[in-house]
Amino acid sequence: xxxxxxxxxxxxxxxxxxxxxxxxxxxxxxxxxxxxxxxxxxxxxxxxxxxxxxxxxxxxxxxxxxxxxxxxxxxxxxxxxxxxxxxxxxxxxxxxxxxxxxxxxxxxxxxxxxxxxxxxxxxxxxxxxxxxxxxxxxxxxxxxxxxxxxxxxxxxxxxxxxxxxxxxxxxxxxxxxxxxxxxxxxxxxxxxxxxxxxxxxxxxxxxxxxxxxxxxxxxxxxxxxxxxxxxxxxxxxxxxxxxxxxxxxxxxxxxxxxxxxxxxxxxxxxxxxxxxxxxxxxxxxxxxxxxxxxxxxxxxxxxxxxxxxxxxxxxxxxxxxxxxxxxxxxxxxxxxxxxxxxxxxxxxxxxxxxxxxxxxxxxxxxxxxxxxxxxxxxxxxxxxxxxxxxxxxxxxxxxxxxxxxxxxxxxxxxxxxxxxxxxxxxxxxxxxxxxxxxxxxxxxxxxxxxxxxxxxxxxxxxxxxxxxxxxxxxxxxx
Length: 478
What we know:
This protein is mainly alpha-helical. Helix content is about 80%, strand content about 0%.
């Protein structure tokens, strides 16, 4: 372990020396660190004056933490260029061969570059944030608590690791600095959207919620580091000179994996679809277990906590039961407002959104959306318990008939999305990241087309035409 750290630090020292003697990196960053806090301080002064004049105490209390977060983000976005050329830049300058011919291991090379890529922008960000805090301490505004400052500094650290780890993955895969810089938008833009969401949490006023953002960013950063390590090969850096888009080769690879050599629909199901499902046993088990936990956690939370927020008197419960009974008759009109084909379209679209969200997060966001859907089921059953209905009978009549097909489809789709993310971060020296992604997507789509779509179609028909009838029949016994 000590030898590994010494080798990583050796690579890092080389990178630090290259950066510190390049005035094109140091001068712009020094100007940004020294000038931007004063601009932000003047903006804060004007904002405070405006809010004191017209009101806005809630926004004013959260203004300084918001500005600190923005100040920390700017140096990260500018120094991202350094991380983007970590490998491809040295390749173009002709300095990569001595480094790759050294006895250092691939992991040591990669982590050494990552260490420098994270440390440099982080130092600039913290300096800029410190200068702003010193300036704002002279203003007549509410200074952030030590707890809030610690959360923002941790969030900035998580942003640095996320952006740099993504940039180094791009640097390994790109063949020119120009291509790497063009792909930088795939790092900056998503993190900018993420920053907007974190800003909403800050203005919301609940500091503890920021811990979820920190943990989410750290998890995604770890997966990106794992992705880079899994697909980093010295031969790959030296072997390619130019990127080419082989659409025919991509189509051929996807088609061969999707068809699986089958010559008929039945054979395709037997040798391709069911084989893909068989390889998803572990993700399916994980998804089912997490889904069950989400249902139970939401159910018990609603039963235990919701009465403290709402009136729970017997009269109130009778009114709610009567209101539910009055609305049971409206279920017969449900099919007029939401026909089965439209419901099938909505469910299918949602499943594809799970995949898209999972692709940008290695399956984690898709899994999060899945857990939210299952938690909603648990919440509804908890409410049924609170107002005096049987949650078991409510589940059996209102969820199980169509849920047997719909939940199975969602579990398969989510497990497939989780498997795509797992394959991307799994070591595979025989295939590139693009090839692994194409193969994983082919497996997902054959399960989606072969099983998920038919199951969703059956579920939509049952939910529209059968479930309302069963609810109406079971209501007197609830």
